[in-house]
Each structure stands twice: as structure tokens, then as C-alpha cells.
Design a protein that fits this description.
Number of helices: 1
Strand order of the largest sheet: 1-2-5-8-11-14-17-20-23
Radius of gyration: 16 Å
Number of strands: 23
Distance between the termini: 43 Å
Shape: globular
Order of helices and strands: EHEEEEEEEEEEEEEEEEEEEEEE
Length: about 210
């Protein structure tokens, strides 16, 4: 059975700036494991290099960055993040500091997550066949042009992006990316709730801006 259930019972009681126990558990987990996080704050700026499911249950498990870099970086296909709160990325545009960053992956799912105080929200670079659904994303409290993009696709094809609520971010932007379904998203107080650059064959349905 590929799904190995790992119950993490002690993490929520550890100090925020203790050793990064969540990263240690991720590193030691077998590929395909399910990590269920109890409510609490977990030290962020983690990297996921294998197929895993991380479930925060009701968004009460918080992965918090240190204000530098990206909070969760996914470098493996077949990763699922769900029901998490992810917050406090860095603020460097040139490094695309984000809540969650996907790079050169397939079949990643980000579901029912809340992303707060993140420069960029969810950044997809060369990511395909991914699902980004039912997430709430808001940027840092900067002027409109200095906020990052809530969702950013770069050479990323055939993804489903639906039922996301984007609030006070900059753009939902699709660069050099084809065949994506963008459906039933809500954009409020953004610059461009949807912005295409050099794209084709994307489907846009039933969004509210």
C-alpha cells in the first residue's frame, strides 16, 4: 500500500524556532506517505523532494516562513498539500519568494489551503497536470504594483485552477502556458485578476472579478 500513515503527535508542542522537525519528518518519510499535522505552528521554508500528502486538517496547522525565501518548495511530482495555512514568505521579487513554489513537476495538488502574507502565492514553473483548487490567497501589505502575483504560471500546461479566492494580490498571471482550465475563481482588489502573456488554448469559465 503506497499510502503510509504517519501520525505526528509532538510537532505542535515544539517552539516555532526550534529545529525544523517538519523538514526532518518529510526527509525521513517513505515516498507516498500521508503526513497528518495536528493544529500548531511549524517552522517553514521546507523542501519536498518526494511524493507525499501533507494534510493540515481545517487549516489549523500553520507552516510559517521566517520572512526570507519561499515557505514550501515542491521539487517532486505527485505531492499534495491540503487544508494548510501557509504564511510569511520573503519579499524579494527577483527571487519570486512565494508561499508555495512548484518547479519541473507533474500531478501536484494544492487544495483548500490559506496563503497569508506571501509575496507571490502559488508559483508554477514548468509544472503540468496540476490542480490548484479552493485556496485563499492574499499578498503582503504593499502598494498594488509591489505585491506579488497570487497565482503565476510560467511554461506550465494542462493545469486545473478552480474555486480560488484571490484577495489584495497583484495578478493571476499566465505566461507561455497552454491548455489550462481557469474556472470559478474570485478576484478582489487586484491589479489584473487574470492576465495572459504569450499563451493559447486556455479555457476561462464562470470567474468573478
Amino acid at each position: 500500500n503506497i499510502m503510509k500513515r504517519l501520525w505526528i503527535l509532538c510537532l505542535a508542542f515544539l517552539p516555532l524556532f526550534a529545529a525544523n522537525v517538519l523538514q526532518d519528518v518529510i526527509d525521513k518519510a517513505k515516498p507516498g506517505s500521508l503526513l497528518e499535522l495536528p493544529a500548531g505552528v511549524y517552522k517553514g521554508n521546507i523542501v519536498i523532494n518526494k511524493p507525499l500528502i501533507i494534510d493540515g486538517k481545517d487549516q489549523k496547522a500553520i507552516i510559517e516562513g521566517d520572512g526570507n525565501g519561499t515557505v514550501v518548495r515542491i521539487n517532486s511530482s505527485y505531492v499534495t498539500l491540503k487544508n494548510l495555512t501557509i504564511r510569511h514568505s520573503g519579499a524579494q521579487h527577483e527571487r519570486v519568494n512565494a508561499g508555495v513554489a512548484l518547479k519541473k513537476v507533474k500531478h501536484v495538488k494544492i487544495l483548500h489551503c490559506k496563503l497569508l502574507d506571501v509575496l507571490f502565492g502559488i508559483d508554477l514553473q514548468e509544472a503540468s497536470n496540476c490542480t490548484i483548487s479552493y485556496n485563499y490567497i492574499t499578498s503582503k501589505p504593499f502598494s498594488l504594483g509591489l505585491r506579488g502575483d497570487a497565482i503565476r504560471l510560467w511554461y506550465s500546461n494542462d493545469n486545473v485552477l478552480d474555486h480560488n479566492h484571490v484577495y489584495k494580490s497583484r495578478d493571476f498571471v499566465v505566461w507561455y502556458s497552454n491548455g489550462n482550465l481557469i474556472k470559478k475563481n474570485l478576484g478582489e482588489y487586484c491589479r489584473y485578476s487574470l492576465h495572459f502573456m504569450y499563451t493559447g488554448k486556455n479555457m476561462v469559465e464562470d470567474n468573478v472579478y
